[in-house]
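cron nightly-structures :: item 1 of 1
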Amino acid sequence: MWGILTALLSGALMSVQGVFNTEVTKQSSLWLSTGWVQFSAFLVCAAAWFFTGRDSIGALWQVDHKYTLLGGVIGAFITVTVIQSMGALGPATAAMLIVISQLVVAYVIELFGMFGVDREPFEWRKILGMLIAIAGIVIFKWKK
């Protein structure tokens, strides 16, 4: 149950953040807004780290697969692409397409066991679920 609630909260926060970031970008610039997002996130994380135990920063260099340290770099591009898509498509359409993209890529990662994720067998019902989600986007965008 906790995982479901956390995922729902994450999705809601992503949508609100995307709208906020798009508005800041309209009043400043894309990379300034993105930089602010990343910097303010760093400050929150540094404060949380300071108050919750302060594990050694050196532990980062002990990570087995160094490419996984690129999450922050990817995060910067996530911020940029969310801002651009919400500005071009509006929050609802952008969020739906973002979620479908996440679902498809996550399933491919599971199917092939990429990045250390346990490999999962192919299941037609999961493909059907994705197709239904895509159909939902078409219905949502359908204009009379």
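cron nightly-structures :: done
Residues 95 and 126 are 20 Å apart (CA to CA).
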